[in-house]
Known about the structure:
This protein is of the alpha+beta class. It contains six helices and nine strands. The longest helix has 15 residues, at 15-29.
Amino acid sequence: MGSVTTGDFTEAGDPFALFDLWLEDAAASEINDPEAMTLATVDEAGLPDARAVLCKGAGPQGLVFFGNAESAKGRELAGHPKAAALFHWKSLRRQARFRGLVSPLAEAEVDAYFVSRPRQSRIGAWASQQSRPLESRAVLEAAVESYTKRFGEGEIPRPAYWRGWRLAPLQIEFWHDGAFRLHDRVLFSRADLDAPWERRRLYP
């Protein structure tokens, strides 16, 4: 598929089809991790929090990502199951923004993705107590070595705390850089997950 030009993306009717095109363009253009997105959540004190994660699936149901449920993002999503995500592709001068509701993935779906990960990444999921204080790098490396010996050449099960989530958007905004800051912005929004999308252009 070819690039979506500024002129035709503003007339798109299906935000997910447009996102697929933009992600495909990014895969051919970005040096690293075109699927990286900044995930924003809110903690129990109401303070916003953000970090980069990898989107491991995108479609009409939303964006899929994985991680440690005992991490800061996992705890924040448990307390406030809403989030925003931002894709910024510098090489294309494009952004895609998502805002919506977050729900946990089914265990079978999480298991299927976990076994597809590189072996060392699966060991890392056991070794890292994500977001919690770490005394030193040596402690982390010792934990990796310990779990490497524990599992040997056998299967590495998924830790119970390693989960997956889906961000089902209520809003999706597409942004394309324009000369003299006269950018093109298109917002798709819907009242709930079963409602049809409404499209409107926004001032830069």
